[in-house]
Each structure stands twice: as structure tokens, then as C-alpha cells.
């Protein structure tokens, strides 16, 4: 098990539920539920979703898992995004009334009476973070939420939030090719005793070496990201080749190496780290779990560390949508 902040204990690896929505193409609900059950069967009991995923349908899907296995799952969900990022619409809301409303709606969709970890998905630029976290703290006092989290906040925003209520985890993109959080956010989290939950730890599948730029569907959300644009994706294949080289040397897959790198970075930087790769394939879940047996030596870590500086394209089309654009 891994300890994040505020004494929140989770499985060493989590599962990102967004993959089980149509953002990467059509998904079969029955197969998606079977994938969730397989994750829990395999020992991944930290399940992450959000009210915006599938317009609430992802929470309903997770709710079907919880109906039989609530006591086995550490449940995380999020609120705060009011637009549809999959369609390029980015807006957020964090006023007290909305916080309380969203929590009740999520609890109903999930079919449970308590959320283990409740995140602010994106900061509302028109509402002080103190007001948002204060309302989230009311949910803790009411017994509807146990732990609080924040997604894509800066170090300063994290400090302001912690002054209101303990924060268990920051969830932001962090991987071999996305390392901007290491400048300020990760050190602040380590100092404050806050854990870190990297989303897209496999670069939305890119770092696995299985992404063909010509195979992305028209409705694939990755087409909205600069790194997956024409030209950039092909240029970034060089990064994958470096990962493949390390993977071959240690007898692992590129995905396993990418997750092992994150695990070792957490140890190096002094904070609990629980990546939440998402997938639709049950065999990928087993592959990801096996990353716990992969150990990288200092030279291999240094080789992987060099990749981020070579990447073409920003990690978000809207710089202020992620923490790096507000630092």
C-alpha cells in the first residue's frame, strides 16, 4: 500500500476511469464494467472518476462496481469543470453552492453515501480557492467526504488550500514527457505532506510505444493536444525509442518502465506517488501492475530524465488550464 497525505492509504497503482468513456472512441458499457472488476480483482483498488467524464455516465459505471464491492474500493471523484474539454470547451466553477450541489449529484450517481477522496478538478479563476476548499471542508464535516484533493494547482494555490483544510493529494499530469510539476508543485507537496496522483502517467498511451498517429479516430480527444498534432507526434517518436531501449535492457515493457520511473521519482523527491493509468484492456492492467517489479539504475533514470527536454508541443492547448501556465 501507499500513503498519500492526510493518512490516506491506497493501492500502489490506481485506475483512471476516463479511459472507459468515449473520449478515445466508442466503448461497450458491459466490457467497461468487466475491466473495472478485473482491476479490483488484480489489486488495483484506488478508482478515479469525475462528474464530467461522459457527462456523469462514468460515475454511474463506477457505481455499478461499488454496488457489489464498495468496501474494497478507495473511491476518488472530482468536480469543478463545467464545460466539455473533449470538445475544446474549458470552464470551471468552484463557488460554495456549486461544490455542495456537485457532491450530492456525484453521490447519487455513484450510489454511495461517502466519497473517499474528493478533488477540485480545476480552479475557478473567479472564486478564491479558500472559498472552494472551505465548502469542501463542509462536506468532510457532514460525513459525505473523507479526504480532499486538488487537480492542476500551483504551489501557491496548494499552500492557500492547505491553510484551510488538510489536502491528501494533488492530481496533475506527470510522466517522463511531462515534468513541469517537478519545478514547484511537487516540492511544495513534499514539504506540506501532500501525496501526488499523476494522471496520464503513460502520456495518454504515447509512452507505451503503441500509438500510431495515423490510427487516431476523428473523435479521439488526443487530437486536441499539441503533442499529438500532425508533425509533433512523429517528432516525439524519438522519445519512445529511448524508453524502448531502457525497457529492453531491463526486460520490461515501455509502459512498465514509465511507471517504474514515476515510482522512483516519488522516492527520490520524498512524497507518496500513486499513478492512475487508464485502459480498456484487461491485459494492460496486469502489465501495469507488474511494473512494481521493475527497478531502474541511476544511469537508466538519467537517460529517461533527458527525454522531457526533447519533446515537441505543449501538454495542453490552453496553458492556463494546467498549473504550469499559472506559475
UniProtKB/TrEMBL annotation:
Question: Which residues belong to any copy of the NADP-dependent oxidoreductase domain?
Answer: 12-308
Q: Which UniProt keywords apply?
A: Oxidoreductase
Pfam short name (any one): Aldo_ket_red
Note whether Oxidoreductase occurs among the keywords: yes
Q: Which InterPro entries match?
A: Aldo-Keto_reductase, NAD(P)_OxRdtase_dom_sf, NADP_OxRdtase_dom
List the GO terms this entry assigns under cellular component, sorted alphabetically. cytoplasm
Among Gene3D superfamilies, the record links this protein to: NADP-dependent oxidoreductase domain
Give the GO molecular function terms: oxidoreductase activity
Q: Which SUPFAM superfamilies match?
A: NAD(P)-linked oxidoreductase
Name the record gives this protein: Aldo/keto reductase
Q: State the species of origin.
A: Antrihabitans stalactiti
